[in-house]
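Late entry, written up from scratch paper. The run itself happened at the end of the previous shift, but nothing got recorded in the book at the time, so transcribing now.
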Amino acid sequence: MKYLKISLLTFAVASALAGCGGGNSTAADTTTSTTSTVKSVEFSSMPAPTAAVDMAKSYSSSIAKVTYTDGTTKDFPLSYNKLFGVKDKVGGNANAAGQLYNYKMEPINDPLGKPVIAETPDANSLLKVGSNLFLISHLEYDWLLSDGSDAYKVANWYSRMPMSMLLTGITQGTDGKLSVKSQKPLDFSGVDGLWIPCFGSQTPWNTHLGSEEDYDLQFNPLNTSGYAATTAGLKALNEVYFKSEKTANPYNHGIIPEVTVKEDGSSSIVKHYAMGRGTWEMSKVMPDGKTAYMGDDGTHGFMLMFVADKAGDLSAGTIYAAKWTQTSADAGGKANLTWVKLGSGNNAEIKALADAATFATLFDAVAPTEGACPTGYTRVRAGSTADECLTVKTGQEKAAAFLESRRFAAIKGATTEFTKMEGIAVNDKDKRLYVAISAIRDSMTDDAKEPVNDIKLAKVSAGATYSADMKGGQKDTSGAAINSDYVATNMYVEAALLGKDITADALGNTADPNTVANTDNIFFSEKMRTLFIGEDSGMHVNNFVWAYNVDTKKLSRVLSAVAGAENTGLQVVEDMNGHAYVMSNSQHHGDWSTGKNAEVDKALATIDKFDANIGYIGGLPAIK
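Output as recorded:
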């Protein structure tokens, strides 16, 4: 995800698939074939917008063609359904949906007494619990003052806010249309608060897995003699969230949270310290119910795999970090993956270590001298562009493995050169993992000055969505068996999923508008055999949602967002009481440089850039 100090907007891709018969009807029609099930779904590719009026709105002109096993077909044009906006008061919620709260669940106001409303909805989980439907949605981050206006500034106000998630009760009509029944913010005070929840996923046991992309709370070198946490995040947690009544600990963040919802709408939240700590974009559990992969967003990141001790229980297990052994530098590169074991533990013991830990209790650290480290220290570059000479203090190996997972991985010889690792998706039939690398740059290029230089690729600013084949019977680098049948063994890029940088065209695109640029949210639909991809790109004037059929290799543009907006919150629900839905939000509409196109600037001036919406793509028949 990108963080920009500008006027932001979220406008969810509140899309619905309304049907038509024979390509003639415009009325909603979700009638299915009465004699046959769905064989395949194909999406037409809509053209990229070129007119200012289209560039300044979210819309779709794509058509989903459903083929049934009896040979009949039916066309379903895409259209929009808005559930609610972040400024709306819905479902009995006394405050705006995007309102942020302190640890006592009191609304946070700015110094002028105005409510602080997050304008960046992200991950969605539409869940059926018993006979009820619930939607969990992330409120990712907040940059500006409460009303989203640049008209006033307040000295020493906070650049970031403690964040939250929403729990919305959903009513489903007989025609499949969704509406809000109830809504409340989720209370994270029992797990020390929530910091930058980015993308998320759904577990095989019907819970929501969130994230904490906590750049602000990662430790960074201040000078040659010491280390300290970035102060902005701790200041906001201490003074805004905890009201100066408690003290925040950075080691309580960068942890994967799991939200369980009961049929009566009550919920429980746990943070899985056993899954390791990083700047998590998201975590995705594999179909075995115990193997999970995490996307570590940033520069000099790593690829982490967690294997739970028991399926359906993420509270205890083992974490491994990937070692990239490159076999080709062409077309996004190819590599074999091996796995370095970092440690085994459970939530309770790692949480206790986190409560007591500081950077100084985990490591001895010195700065390199002319690129070299003293005897007994390892030179690493992990999560930062600066090299560090580190050694783990005696008896602190487990704490370092789980609380400084990226640095510990580098010390143990794993690769910490991935950039902008975002969404994770799984294709179970082919036993294939998909990994979004938003940009191939910086630490993924060939740089002999890096401590190790495992990844040596040509720069592709538009990034790529990588594939990885998963197998069982694998061993870690020490020769010990890995207790999983879903171990990624390689990485490569299918041709259609590699971005293409270009010289700026007349509209201002610096990546080919007919290919994916800066892949971010991804979600694979098993029954549609389709990988959905949402862009977070400054290289496309309009960001798109794409549908890539892994069998036909057809890449289709299925939605265009307002100029500058980022597409977020992808989730595919293939059969919810006889209907299919694709959840999809977007953020910071109008986030582009003014002056490029006067007509687009004029069109953008007519929209409320902070009326962020959450919605869905729906109307398709259930994909069975």
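The two ends are 33 Å apart (CA to CA).
(Scratch paper discarded after transcription.)
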